[in-house]
Amino acid sequence: MGGFNMTTIDVSRRSFIKGGLAGAMGIVAAGSLAACAGSGSKKESSADSTKEQITVEETREADVVVVGLGASGLMAALAAADKGANVIAIDSAQNFEGTTNTHTTGAWMIGSKEQLKHADYLTEQEAFEWIEPGTHYQSNGKVLRNIIRSSAQAANYLIDGGVQLMYAFEGSTKDTPMLSRGGHIYLEEGEGRANNFRDMCAQRSNLETIFNCKAQQLVTDDSGNVTGIICKNGKTETQINAKAVIMCSGGFLANPDMIKELFAGAVLVNQGMGQNDGSGIKMCQEAGAQIGKNFSVSINEMGAANLKASPAYSWAPGRGTNPCFYLPLFGNILVDKRGERFMNEQQMCELTMFSGEPLLRDPYYYTIVDQAYVDRVKSSPVFDFLTAGTKQNMGPALLMGFQDVTLSDFDKSIDEAISQGWAAKADSIEELAKKFDLTDLPETIKAYNDACSKGYDDEFFLPADYMHAINQGPYYVFEYNPGAWVTLGGIKTDGFCRAVNADNDVIKGLYVAGVDGDFWSVPYFQGGSCNGFSLASGVLAGNTASADI
Ligand SMILES: Cc1cc2nc3c(=O)[nH]c(=O)nc-3n(C[C@H](O)[C@H](O)[C@H](O)COP(=O)(O)OP(=O)(O)OC[C@H]3O[C@@H](n4cnc5c(N)ncnc54)[C@H](O)[C@@H]3O)c2cc1C
């Protein structure tokens, strides 16, 4: 089989989106708020004087503390516990359902017990030789190798833990696309998967999970070693002393300041969970850890977004989004705030999830369509504008999501976008340009229309299949911010997820995994590896920490 089972993925993708929205909007079921048992004694934290002084009300002891119970944190906790460590794992979410890892669609993994049943299974060598050149050798090679080696243990935790999976690699050969060869697709989203995760933890008596508990500081000793965390457990400030802290806090998508800083002024609409606020990365930095050098995003392959829109999110068809957010996905011309084109728009259709980098260069980007286009998408599926060749190249999410989508209510959607301030209509391109100060737009449209007449785009080489002249007024402009699922990149580590300082020396007691870790590339490269590598890096960090202590 050449690709994922479309029907199954479709269902799963839609359901995770629902869950993602619920999570992002804070609509999560209230779970029981486990309380830390502890001494109850009050004392000042041992964090150094540059840090906020917190009055600690409880003190606890563990071998390993894991911050975050998402993909990497869950795996880190299981792996460390299975090596015999006493583990306390905390998460600021209310329960497992409030973590992203119960809402993802699929994980790209290597060497699971199900993969090994197949003669042509994806080997560690193939995976390494695929990722290294694919990411232009940007990855931390040592940690990448070790993550690939840890991937089977992570996948087998899911399989043995009863997580319902569909295997995209069934019937695959060496020629099957890599996405399928590593594809472990979740069949259950939300509660069912959360129950599996809860049971997996409950089966280990040396592993305690605490939700609604947010880490606030790392505790360091006089030598700079990390010796624990201070966390807010409900209303109680608790210090957990530990020989190892594994940071798995899931990046900084919910932190606009960090996005601006680390993506050179970018604005991203957060389509993930609100808890990924970069606090873990900041804590590691405060403890002397060196920030990594690669930062990228997994862009929302279902469309654009706009902070002014209500809701700001762009979900798959049928999820209540404004369909005007789909327009950049289908090869429509894209311009920056100067009104100039900046990329080959084909990429948005065929490699949507990986096209985040060009979109991050400006806080806003815009698409322009004319009345002829609007009339066409009202009467026949947007998909019909694509040629057979283009459809074949489309990203699987677009293929699955948009096949039957006709924008019959498009006028209403446009009116809504205009009323929310992220779209405008005008009788001429000159007038349209003024609506968002797109100074060079008239010139850009003229050049583009000339290219359409020639059938050849000598600026960005957009294939003729996608080109359609913009010459029948009135005209429409839509303003977008990129929407993303997650940020990738955080703290620099050695090859085993141990955080390092500015001298590249290991900070004793501090480990980092998941999207906070140091093995991501710009751009994000392999679909599903975000989840797969997060899971595997958690295993690696858990194994390493428990061996070190
Ligand atoms: C809706 C959605 C769907 C996705 N689907 C896919 C997919 O199908 N495939 C894929 O490869 N990737 C997918 N992703 C990307 C996804 O984020 C990663 O796959 C994966 O969850 C990252 O793992 P992580 O452990 O690094 O972070 P997370 O799984 O986000 O876990 C981090 C955890 O840390 C907690 N936390 C943060 N700060 C603190 C703190 N200070 N104290 C305590 N706890 C804290 C958070 O609550 C969170 O639960 C999706 C993302 C979203 C939002």
From TrEMBL:
InterPro entries with a match to the protein in the record: FAD-dep_OxRdtase_2_FAD-bd, FAD-oxidoreductase_2, FAD/NAD-bd_sf, Succ_DH/fumarate_Rdtase_cat_sf, TAT_signal
Transmembrane segments: none
Keywords assigned: FAD, Flavoprotein, Oxidoreductase
Gene Ontology molecular function, alphabetical: steroid dehydrogenase activity, acting on the CH-CH group of donors
Cofactor: FAD
Domain annotation FAD-dependent oxidoreductase 2 FAD-binding: ranges: 63-515
SUPFAM superfamilies cross-referenced by the UniProt entry: FAD/NAD(P)-binding domain, Succinate dehydrogenase/fumarate reductase flavoprotein, catalytic domain
Name of the protein this chain belongs to: Fumarate reductase flavoprotein subunit
Naturally occurring in which organism (per UniProt): Denitrobacterium detoxificans
